[in-house]
Structures are given as structure tokens and as C-alpha cells.
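Much of what follows relies on a compact textual record of a protein's fold. An example makes this concrete, so a full record is given next.
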Amino acid sequence: MTTMNNMDKKIKYLERELWILAWNASVQHAALYKNGAWQNQKDQIDRFRNRVICHIKGNIIPQYTEVVEESRHCKNIRALIDYANQVDTGILGKDGYKYGVAQKVLNLALKYY
């Protein structure tokens, strides 16, 4: 029982680390947030990131258990953009959640999974 519990902890740790890598890679050069948001609204950014990641994990990733056509993948990216813009708490820049950011975080998440 303890061995499985330790394995679960390791898997959760690795999953958390992979999401950090995917998220950071997707936003690192994107100028996604408003000026000053990173310094003044860190809690809001964390909540936003967590909500978007939970949405990807719960609603988008499960669609990829079989081969997904490119058109469906593009629709999933668009749906991710719509969701992220909907849950924005005022931290995103004027362009909102960008296509390239959504595409990169989803593609990296799929690659890591």
C-alpha cells in the first residue's frame, strides 16, 4: 500500500512539473499579461493558470485518446482560447489569450502525456 501511495505522489509531482514546463514555455515570449500584472497580480495569474490547466486536463486532453483530425485539434485550440478569455480576471493584455500560446501549451501537454 505504501509503495503505491509513493508512486501516486511521484506521478502527481511529475505531472505538476510537466505542466509548469508547458505553461512557462507557452507564455515566455508572448507578452500575454498586462504591464505590471506579473508583479502586482501574481495571485490572479496563479488562479487563471490553474483554471486553464484544469480545463485542458478535464475537457480537452480526454478527447485525444484516439487520433484527432487537424480540424478538431484547431477547434480545441479555439475552444481553449474562448475559455481562457472568459475566465480572465483582467490580467491579460489587449490581445487576450493568444492562439500561439494556446497552441503551444496544448501541444506540449499532449507531447508530455
